[in-house]
Structures are given as C-alpha cells and as structure tokens.
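Exercise 7. Given the encoded structure of a 185-residue chain, write a plausible sequence.
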C-alpha cells in the first residue's frame, strides 16, 4: 500500500468546517500548541451500569471470517448517578469467533432514559480465555449517538466498559450480561 493511499482518509478533515476543528477559546495557548504541556493521564468516571437481557444465540456457522453468533438483545435496565432507564428490545450482539478462539463482540442497541430520550449505543470489545479456560476481563469501547440536549455529552466523550456474564437465575430468567460504563476524563 502506498503512503499516499494510507493517509488518504485524513483528507476528509479538510471537509470539516474550521469552526468544528478549532480549539475552545478557554483553552490556554500553551496547551493548545502543546508547548511545555505535561502529558495528561486519563482518569475514569463511573456513568452507569447496564443489565442486558439476551435471547438464545442464532448460529449461522462458519464464514470466511470465522464462526458467527447473533444474539438478540431482549431488554434490560441501566442506572447511574445522572442517568437511568430501560434497554429497548430489538438490539443485537454480533459475535465473531476468531481463529485464535477470541470472540469479537459488536452490540448495537438502544437505551431509553426515564425522561424519554432514546440513545443508540454501539459497544465493541474482544473476549478471550486464559490458558486454563478462564474468561479474561472483557473491556469494551462504547460509542453513543444521543439526541441533542440533556444527554448530548454522551456523544462528545470517550468511554470504556467492563462486561461480565450474569449467571441465569434459578427461576429460569434469560441469560444476561452486566456492563459498567466509564467516561474517560
């Protein structure tokens, strides 16, 4: 691949209006220019925890990319200090079992807040097992598409998540996962 071809997507930045790319007026000149600025170590702020209910997987079988699982998201709930609500049914977790045995996860679903806002979330990660078959900690990268207004900050920040399976309850509850979302500051 030529160097020009590799950098071609960066040319799209030229299409973004200059007002979007400029630094905020309140940012000090030294930080904006990078002169003398110390690196900033990110910290995490807890945003909310989800309990996501799942249906039985649909398994189409091997593909050219690996084995595929499609897991319907049937509902659930989420709650945090400044946001809470339900997970709407109808989302999907598109899983690809790779040649190395790890599972690439890409879930696409909707949150509905208690005050009626509907927010799309696409959450991706990789789940791998350790040498003794134990599930290693799963980290995800959620991206939000909120409506304008109160929850707009979700679309303006970076986030990380943790994902862990929830054992089905003895009463026959459906399988589920617990996801904790943190904003990177």
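Solution.
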């Amino acid at each position: 691949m030529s160097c020009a071809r590799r950098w071609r997507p960066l040319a799209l930045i030229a299409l973004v209006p200059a007002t979007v790319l400029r630094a905020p007026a309140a940012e000090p000149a030294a930080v904006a220019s990078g002169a003398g600025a110390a690196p900033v170590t990110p910290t995490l702020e807890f945003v909310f925890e989800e309990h996501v209910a799942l249906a039985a997987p649909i398994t189409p079988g091997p593909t050219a990319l690996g084995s595929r699982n499609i897991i319907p998201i049937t509902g659930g709930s989420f709650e945090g200090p400044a946001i809470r609500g339900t997970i709407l049914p109808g989302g999907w977790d598109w899983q690809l079992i790779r040649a190395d045995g790890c599972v690439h996860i890409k879930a696409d679903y909707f949150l509905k807040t208690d005050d009626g806002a509907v927010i799309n979330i696409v959450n991706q990660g990789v789940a791998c097992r350790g040498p003794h078959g134990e599930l290693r900690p799963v980290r995800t990268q959620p991206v939000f598409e909120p409506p304008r207004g109160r929850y707009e900050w979700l679309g303006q920040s970076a986030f990380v998540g943790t994902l862990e399976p929830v054992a089905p309850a003895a009463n026959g509850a459906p399988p589920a996962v617990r996801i904790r979302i943190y904003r990177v500051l």
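Remark. The domain at 40-184 is CATH 2.40.160.20 (Porin). Students should compare their own answers with the one above.
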